[in-house]
Amino acid sequence: MRIKRSLIIFLTMVLTVSLLFPISESVKASPPSSITNLTVEYMDNPIGIDSEQPRFSWNMVSNKRGAKQQAYEIIVSDSAKNLMQGKFIWSTGKVASAQSVNIKYSGSTKLKPSTRYYWKVKVWDQNNKLLESKDNAYFETGLMSTDGKTNWNGAQWITNNISTTEPVNVTLFRTEKELGNNPIENAQLYITSLGVYNAYINGKEVQLVQDQNKPVDETFNPGWTDYNSYVNYQTYDVTSYISNQSKVSLGVMLGKGWFAGRIGQVGQYTRITGNKLALLAKMVVTYKDGSKDIIVTNESTWKSSEKSPILENDFFDGETYDANIAREIEGWNNSNFDDSGWSSVSAINYVGKVKGDRGAAARIAEEYTQYPIEAFKYSEIEPSTQNGGESTLDYGHAVTANVNPKSNISLKGGETLIIDMGQNMAGVPSIKVGGTKGSIVTLRYAEMLNDGRKNSNIATGGSDGPKDTLYRKALTSAAQTDKYILSGQGVEEYQPAFTFHGYRYMEITADKDIRINSVEGKVITSVGEQSGTITTSNKDVNKLFNNILWGQRSNYLSIPTDSPQRAERAGWTGDAQLFAQTAVYNYNDIRFLESYSEIMDVHNRNTNGIYGSIMPGAFVGFFANTVASGWSDAGIIIPWVLYQQTGDTTVIEKNFAQMEKYMDYVGVNGYNTGLFGDWLAFQATSTVYLNTVYRAYDAQLMIKMAKAIGNDSAVEKYEQLYAQVKSDFVKKYLDESGNLLTASADNFTQSRHGYPGADNAQTGLLWALKLGLYETNQQKEKMIQNLTANIKNENSIIRPGQPENTLAVGFLGVNVILPTLSDIGDDELAYTLLLQEEMPSWLYSVKNGATTIWERWNSYSIKDSFGDSSMNSFNHYSYGAVAEWMYKYMAGISNNPEKPGFQHFVLQPTIDKQNRITWVDGSYKSVYGEIESKWKVKDGTFTYEATIPANTTATVVIPASDLKDVTEGGNPLTKAVGVKVIEIKDGKVICEVESGSYTFEARIN
């Protein structure tokens, strides 16, 4: 009893003391620091890695201020058991370094092909405390060859035996093999094709499965490359597909894809195979006793068939599927199928390289699945009054009746059903439908519905039919039509396999009565994990940001394309380069752009130094070998963006020789003088002028990249080039007063699309200011005056017919305008442009119901109807490059160009002094960890919450004129832990800040 009484008294005293003297936040117990997010080649537990020196990265996570890494040790073993026991093939030893990104394997033991390696990392923190990763991290090498022969164990490229001059529509391949009696340890499948493949093992579709994660449904593999030069292969762990099986059946269905469809005709890829599809595959089954069974594509054990339920397939035109044939050949991809009627196969010689890569693989992204928000039916069109009807619209209107899209819908033969998915996207429908055998269900797609009006200002503009019908004029020659032929066996499910569409609206018709049970929109994309977020107090800006995300999801599909709906969908390099910085903020798409850099590098090698305007070759063949400023320069700009975002020089080192060839080519041959320019700008800038500007820009980037890789001779070469270009520029384009002669110096009157040219055009001024193309401050100030006057456009004097406070830039000015305005100190004008709602502006499309980014500022006009149908995509991404400013300036999360890779970065939140936007919440998952930046302004107080990841530091810029007006955590800034005041300049307090979470407050005017 005495012990209990004493214990009670003691606990009471402790509780009393704790209430009277609460523990301060700084000494409360906090979760321990940890090591997480282990990646190899920027991927989690990747398989099929062919790099001899894969790159290792990890993050340190801690809520302690000043947490950082002082040293690390990477340990790699050839088994999980050996890793646990401390047996390794490579250890870095303890390395005194804060680097935790892009550390290359440098072991004396060469990595073996087709081998899984396990690894971990040890980290010593700021207190020399040892932290060790807990993740079961691994990577698996691929075949470690590119000739398509080495380590393929005799696998042959196989194709069908049919003699034809036309591309085969679909080819089925299959083989079977008895398995051994020993327990299976693991199994891997290595596969690629000329065409796109769907692979099956024992009747089950092969998907990417890693650990216990949800399988990834990749599609359209092996992806789009220049098939004349190389093709990628993919690796799959298929152990789970054959466990407890006595036999393995491997079936593969090939469709046209980019290789044999209309989209690839410019590349003339099918000449490789004589208009046939081809397959290369190897499957390795390893037993627990170490023995193996190997299945390879060859002439002796494989068979093929052209009898497929997919009667037609093309990316532009769509797919036709006959469910009756599917029933006839049911089980073709499973064991014990009677393939006696199938044909033998032939081996072909493919001379291109075969490389292991899935960094740009497209997938069916279930997390983005869309569901209908509205639907209506019609069977009657009310003609216009001039055509004998009563409709006041030029083309009349459909007589519609609303239906519930979430319930079963009965559709009579001859009726039309329109379904609004609520979101423009790239993908395919997944539909459940029933009806009589042989009924043909036709699915057509469009981004917009007709408004029934003509556009008197544009000959090819306006609707292409009655109001509430599909607007399909802008699809050019793309049919965008799927057909499904019913088997009559109850409710049938259909999801196209070898096509994709750009659409928001679906039209469903049938030749007989049908029942539609459900419709879903399956999104197809190559984007990785979302890495950036921005939310503001302005709902329209939030919608704009969401539209930008959807534009990237829709157009990052194997390569950066330009639109997912019309007969184009090509890799336009101008779009790719100007959006690249935004892209890597939005999503973890580093590997995606590295894969595209490979395509550009190969193109350059094949053309003796040219980066084309489209890569790979597609759409119009001329453009693949056309050097155009702002387009071809993607070969220089995208590696620079990747370097800035990661601090990794790998892409620069790999591509630098080809960049130099390009620079030399342009130096001798120049750019094409008549193409593109500031594409679709409302006030055009001379293309010749922009040729000079991009020559200067490339020289600047080459200087910086040469310094990064220690190429001193190249630094000197490009410093001289920049100096010469600048000197020539000043002589030609600047008059005595500092006006910029962006039109008269080149006798430039209008762009290819009829927009007028003018001196002191916005894009021209922006680039001159960005690159420092002036000799005196007077010239600079004159440029600034001309730029602000042009944008303000008071009384429409400078740009007649265009509203005040509007931009007039096109593709080559859109990612430059707001950053340049902020850099010259005019944040308010930048905000004014962001928030402008009149055309041309970003919010104009938002106000008009856009769910993605439009190709044109005036793709649609309430006043005039649709714009030029010859080029009118409602799902682009170029103008979405404004998000670069939103991240770097509005949210304030900016890379430091002098210290690439976000181990040290800049937080410079930019407030709207007119309080049109009162708060911004932004974040970015950098390669070193997640950065958070959240600010608000209320009652004259600026509150800023920032999180700097462990093992990083930041320069923080607070909008305040007096140090006394700024606190952190309620303490004077000079006494804040982890904060060092550097200077007070131009109404800003600039600090160096250690890792951790901070809350700053400042009194502002």
Task: Describe the model.
- With 1005 residues, the chain is of the alpha+beta class.
- The strands form ten sheets. Strands 15, 21, 22, 25, 26, 27, 28, 29, 30, 33, 34, 35 and 36 form a 13-stranded mixed beta sheet that branches.
- Helix 8 crosses helix 11 (650-669) and helix 16 runs antiparallel to helix 17 (827-835).
- The longest helix is centred in the C-terminal third of the chain and has 22 residues, at 687-708.
- Mean pLDDT is 94; it is low at 1-30.
Q: Percent of residues in beta strands? A: 25-35%
Q: Largest beta sheet, briefly?
A: 13 strands, mixed
Number of DSSP helical runs: 19
End-to-end C-alpha gap: 67 Å
Mean pLDDT: 94
Number of strands: 52
Helical proportion, percent range: 10-25%
Indicate the overall shape: globular
> Roughly how many Å is the radius of gyration?
30 Å
The secondary structure category is alpha+beta
Low-confidence stretches: 1-30
